[in-house]
Structure formats: structure tokens, C-alpha cells
Automatic annotation (TrEMBL):
Belongs to the LysR transcriptional regulatory family. One of its GO terms (molecular function) is DNA-binding transcription factor activity. Signal peptide: none annotated. This is LysR family nitrogen assimilation transcriptional regulator. GO terms for biological process: regulation of DNA-templated transcription initiation. InterPro entries: LysR_HTH_N (IPR000847), LysR_subst-bd (IPR005119), WH-like_DNA-bd_sf (IPR036388), WH_DNA-bd_sf (IPR036390). Pfam families: HTH_1, LysR_substrate. PANTHER family: NITROGEN ASSIMILATION REGULATORY PROTEIN NAC, TRANSCRIPTIONAL REGULATORY PROTEIN NAC-RELATED. Keywords: Activator, DNA-binding, Transcription, Transcription regulation. Residues 6-63 form the HTH lysR-type domain.
Length: 315
């Protein structure tokens, strides 16, 4: 490092800037002066010796180095919260602890709201929020590392119980200059483009490959990367296209940095489940306030995506 050691406050400030996409909005939400926040970000960049933010007329966005720092910061704060929760269990107070896993697309779509809503709806609950791919979250629930997860396209198995909550569309994502003129596009048109996808256990990739197999089509992945930030960067440079849920690219679509098209013939959808340990999976076993909190998050996911997501009626 070129400068002094970084501290938790600098990381918290940086994370808020990335989440809001604006130093001005972040300063308002953090209740600090904008020059002080800008100075904190510059100190971070000096410490690492690399730019962490692209600054432009619409605000700011994380560089690849900034995306990595943001991801590691979220993981670090999650670990710190979990340490606090685990150690605090030794006290004799009545505080409850609840850990929830969300995949990256949902963290981007509702992550901040999930934390704020927990504070408002569950005042006596300490929430620990974990971000990981769907397959890793299902493993974490089974291994009792977290209580519950929202996860996509997870297969039923003895250690976990799945409750289907909503259908969510997978979209073709391209550079704006490379977007097909028609909307929707067919799966065959989608697969004709050079594809960037997550690893072989990635939920979106599994959905795409299954649909391709059903249609007798070849699904060739040119760029494999288990990082939504990295895949977005490849697509923003016009190197490849990808398929992602809306939450993964909402900010970039609004800023005209990426374009989306719906995929039809066949309709590309994945199922989001609430994943719980198989033992005690009876919904009635959940505290009523936590159950209501989870359902409010499902409603928010649907609301944020409009006609790209719809709830599944309970059996």
C-alpha cells in the first residue's frame, strides 16, 4: 500500500457511494459533508494505488478494482456481523439472530432495502445478510451456516426444503450498439451471440443450457467468470453478450450502458425459492414477524421488476 491502513469507516463510505452511484447522494444518506466523503474516497484510492471509481456527468460507478473492493467489503461486513451475532449469543438478553442469504442480483436490486426493512420490521432481531451465488447459498443453508436463503433454480435434496415464490425472466444483455432490433428475441438468436456466463453451477447458466438442450441448440460459453461485475464489464466493452435477471443490470440499463431484450420461444424464466433446512421446514415454525418480513421482500422484488417477475400462487 502507498498510504495509511484503511479502516471500516472508509469502507462503509465507499460501499454507500457504489450503492447510490453518486457521491452527493451518499453524503446525504451518511449525514456527512460531500468534501469529507470525497476526501475519504481519494485516501482509499491512494492507499491501493488504483482508481476505484469512474467519475462522469451522471455520477460515479465502480471500476473493476472498485467492484472487487465492494464485493470484499460486503463479505467483510457480513463476517463482522456474524462474529458479533455468534459471540452475542452467550449473553442472557432476548435478542434474536437471523441470517439471510441473497444472490448478487437480489443484493443489487433490494439489498439496502432488506437491511433497512429488517431494522424497521424486526426491531429485536439482528440481521446478518450474506451474498453468494444461489448454489453456494443452498449449500450454506444445508450446512447451517445461514438460516434462510432466496435462491434460483435449486434442486430439491434431503438437507434442504424449497418453497417456490416467484418466476423471474432471464434477459439477453448486450452493449447498446449490439442489441437486436426486435424485442423479444428467440433463444436461437440469443445463442448465436458470443456468450459470457458464470460457472457450471451458476443458476442462470444452468437455465440457459437446459433450455438450449430442450430445443436441440448448442450453448457455447466463450467467457466463463463467476462474477456478475466481471461479466457486466465484458458486455459493456462489447466483447460478448450474456443472460442475466433484471436486478443484475438495472442501474446500467437506466444509464444506457447496457441494453436488454426479453427472450421468447421458449420463454426464459427461472424460479426463485425460499430455501430452508429440511429439519423444521414447516412455514408455521417461522416466527410470524420474520415470515412477514420475508414475504415483504418477495413483494419488493416483484415490484422492482414490473412484468419481468410474478409471484407463484401457493399450492
Amino acid at each position: 500500500m502507498k498510504g495509511p491502513l484503511i479502516n471500516a469507516r472508509q469502507l462503509r463510505y465507499f460501499a454507500k457511494v457504489v450503492e447510490t452511484g453518486s457521491i452527493t447522494r451518499a453524503a446525504e444518506q451518511l449525514y456527512i459533508a460531500q468534501p469529507a466523503l470525497s476526501s475519504s474516497i481519494r485516501q482509499l484510492e491512494d492507499s491501493f494505488g488504483v482508481p476505484l471509481l469512474h467519475r462522469h456527468s451522471r455520477g460515479v460507478e465502480a471500476t473493476p478494482a472498485g467492484e472487487l473492493l465492494y464485493s470484499r467489503t460486503c463479505s467483510l461486513f457480513g463476517i463482522m456481523e456474524q462474529i458479533h451475532a455468534d459471540i452475542s449469543r452467550f449473553s442472557q438478553n432476548t435478542t434474536r439472530y437471523f441470517s439471510l442469504g441473497l444472490p448478487p442480483s437480489l443484493v443489487m436490486l433490494i439489498g439496502t432495502e432488506a437491511i433497512v426493512a429488517a431494522r424497521e420490521q424486526l426491531p429485536d432481531v439482528v440481521l446478518s445478510l450474506r451474498e453468494d451465488p444461489s448454489f453456494a447459498l443452498a449449500d450454506a443453508v444445508e450446512n447451517k451456516e445461514i438460516d434462510i436463503a432466496f435462491a434460483y433454480s435449486v434442486a430439491e435434496r434431503p438437507g434442504i426444503h424449497l418453497t417456490p415464490m416467484l418466476h423471474e425472466e432471464l434477459l439477453l444483455v448486450t452493449h447498446p450498439d449490439q442489441a437486436p432490433p426486435q424485442d423479444p428475441v428467440t433463444l436461437e438468436q440469443t445463442l448465436a451471440l458470443p456468450m459470457a456466463q458464470g460457472g457450471k453451477r451458476d443458476a442462470g447458466r444452468c437455465t440457459l443450457e437446459f433450455a438450449a438442450g430442450e430445443q436441440g441448440l448448442s450453448c457455447e460459453v466463450i467467457y466463463e467468470m463467476q462474477s456478475i461485475a466481471g461479466i457486466r464489464e465484458i458486455v459493456k466493452r462489447g466483447i460478448a453478450a450474456t443472460t442475466l435477471p433484471y436486478g443484475s443490470v438495472a442501474r446500467e440499463v437506466a444509464g444506457n450502458e447496457l441494453a436488454i431484450r426479453r427472450i421468447d420461444n421458449p420463454h426464459m424464466r427461472q424460479i426463485m425459492h425460499i430455501v430452508r433446512p429440511a429439519h423444521g421446514a414447516d412455514p408455521a415454525a417461522l416466527d410470524e414477524d420474520i415470515r412477514a418480513y420475508l414475504l415483504s421482500l418477495v413483494d419488493l422484488i416483484v415490484e422492482r421488476q414490473g412484468n419481468l417477475a410474478n409471484k407463484i400462487d401457493p399450492p
